[in-house]
Design a protein that fits this description.
Length: 250
């Protein structure tokens, strides 16, 4: 990778992670205050959540640094273990009644706006392609259309969730569309990795995700986007319409 693209791409990944941790802390803090927690307790819990995310980022970052994820010959490839725990946690929270009650306090638009971080992720992948470490098919110039979700998120949050005029059906469709595009790039990335399942044989292979800080793309960015879509969908299911007033089902 060129001396220009490598530090630029690494810096963007790290800055995006920091920004997302900060935004997540603010979002959970506000939600907890609205949930009825005191400001002091809400601040403490929200920082505990960020600390948990930071520890997970540190674990997969250190594992990548020691070369754990670089073995693509085993089944499943070790990079799988950077993704799986977060997905399991998301599904657990999805069916948790306390978390469901907490979701009611999160502004619906927030769960949509946050998906705009995928614009930066797509820029990172594109820079990786220019630096010859990311294959063509994983960029918006290839078969990855995930940037559409990031761009539309900036508008969708405001359009779908105007006060007392929620476009619930459209928001559900947008989330399903976003999940479909997320699955699309995950499959492309999997089939581009140098494993026995490789389908895209053009070079380079998708091996860079096994290295720090690129491991945070599958280990944090992908599960985060997945979680926000599912949490938004659950929230939309809980919403009920009463004339022009929108409240939550009990």
């Amino acid at each position: 990778m060129s001396t220009l693209y490598l530090p630029l791409t690494q810096t963007l990944i790290i800055l995006l992670v920091v920004a997302m941790l900060w935004i997540t802390q603010l979002g959970f803090y506000k939600g907890l205050v609205d949930y009825g927690k005191s400001e002091t307790k809400s601040r403490k819990i929200s920082w505990y959540i960020v600390l948990g995310l930071f520890l997970w980022l540190s674990i997969i970052g250190l594992s990548a640094g020691f070369g754990f994820f670089q073995n693509f010959d085993v089944v499943p490839p070790r990079i799988f273990f950077a993704i799986f725990p977060s997905v399991v946690l998301t599904i657990f929270l999805l069916f948790s009644k306390p978390f469901g009650r907490f979701l009611k306090t999160i502004p619906p638009a927030w769960l949509v706006y946050i998906q705009s971080f995928r614009i930066v992720v797509e820029i990172i992948l594109w820079l990786g392609f220019l630096g010859k470490v990311i294959p063509f098919q994983m960029t918006f110039e290839g078969f990855n259309y995930d940037i559409v979700v990031g761009l539309t998120a900036l508008l969708a949050g405001g359009i779908f969730f105007r006060k007392n005029h929620y476009r619930r059906f459209e928001a559900i469709i947008w989330n399903v569309f976003g999940l479909a595009l997320l699955v699309n790039i995950v499959v492309i990335a999997f089939l581009s990795a140098p494993s026995t399942f490789r389908v895209f044989m053009n070079e380079p292979s998708n091996e860079i995700v096994a290295y720090f800080p690129f491991v945070w793309i599958p280990g944090f960015f992908v599960p985060y986007a997945f979680a926000m879509h599912l949490f938004s969908l659950k929230q939309l299911i809980l919403i009920r319409e009463n004339g022009r007033t929108f409240t939550f089902n009990k």
